[in-house]
Design goal:
The chain has no helices and ten strands. With 113 residues, the chain is mostly beta strands. The protein has a single domain (3-108), classed as Immunoglobulins (Immunoglobulin-like, Sandwich), CATH 2.60.40.
C-alpha cells in the first residue's frame, strides 16, 4: 500500500504518496514505473454528474511532482478542490506496485459566509 497524507497550503491540497518496498514502514522508498493520481468529488444532493466525474493526473505533470527534497519514491499531487467531500486515489506500477486512497472534506469558511 502507498502511504498517503493530506497537507493544506492556502486553499490548495497536497496529497503526498510514498512508495516503499517492501510495503511497510521499514521498506525502502522506491520509484514506481508509473504514478497516477485520481481525484473525485463525492456526489452530494443536487450535484450534476460532471461534479463528481474522476480526473486523472499522471507523473510528471504540473499537478504531480516529486516531493521537494526527496529523490526517490515520494510524490506530491497538488490541486485546488472546491467545497465538498473528495477522494484521491494513487496507483503505482512496476517495481513499487501499490495503491492507496484518502478522503477529506473541504468546507466553506464559516467566518466568511
Amino acid at each position: 500500500m502507498a502511504d498517503l497524507e493530506v497537507l493544506v497550503e492556502g486553499n490548495r491540497r497536497i496529497v503526498r504518496a510514498a512508495f516503499r518496498v517492501p510495503a511497510d514502514d521499514t521498506g525502502v522508498l522506491t520509484d514506481p514505473t508509473t504514478v497516477v493520481f485520481t481525484a473525485r468529488k463525492r456526489k452530494q444532493a443536487g450535484d450534476v454528474a460532471a461534479a463528481y466525474a474522476p480526473t486523472t493526473y499522471t507523473f510528471p505533470t504540473a499537478e504531480v511532482a516529486r516531493t521537494p527534497g526527496v529523490a526517490v519514491g515520494s510524490y506530491d499531487f497538488t490541486f485546488l478542490p472546491g467545497e465538498g467531500t473528495w477522494a484521491v486515489h494513487v496507483q503505482g506500477t512496476g517495481a513499487a506496485y501499490a495503491a492507496g486512497e484518502v478522503a477529506f472534506v473541504v468546507d466553506r469558511a464559516e467566518a466568511l459566509a
